[in-house]
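Researcher:
Attend to token order:
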Amino acid sequence: MKKFCLFLLVFVSWFCSACTTPVDNTTMSIQPSNFSKETQEVLEIFDDEVVFFDCNLDESVASYAVDLWAYQDGKWILKGNTSGGIERLNNRLALRLMDNGYDLYIIDESGYSKYSADDIGTDFSVSTSVLSKKITNPVPIECNKEIPLWVKIGTDKHGISLGEAYDFRNADCNSGVAITVTFSDKQV
């Protein structure tokens, strides 16, 4: 049932993409998708489980890479990667971050492709404080520069912070997951 609901959500967002507010076309950026009121009401059913992002790209971008990072044994480890030519991206992607995995949806004219990672090896039960932060405003895109889209970190200390730059690699944490995107001027 949960998979069917998620499929329905992706289909509705794809179908309603014509009803979205266009992204500012003056500079390359990535931002949360801006849906019509009706689509937002459907998305509220799923709370924060799935987040959609719109990309405004120019001809200098040839490919993308979405990376999954996990904090294990005191360091950040690359646990998964999905990459491809920019023609597949169609300027929209969606993420679903769970306690120990994630789903990535690449949305195109014909529907979507789903990529998943389970059991990424991070344990938030060892943390007394957990912070989840995702981009909420347009972020400028620079070719070959990583952009954290969604970061979730935990700590056993009293305070926790990522700062404005979502600097997860320098966060004082004991558990964590980060999903980043990098747009490149080189073909994959």
In short: The longest strand covers residues 75-85.
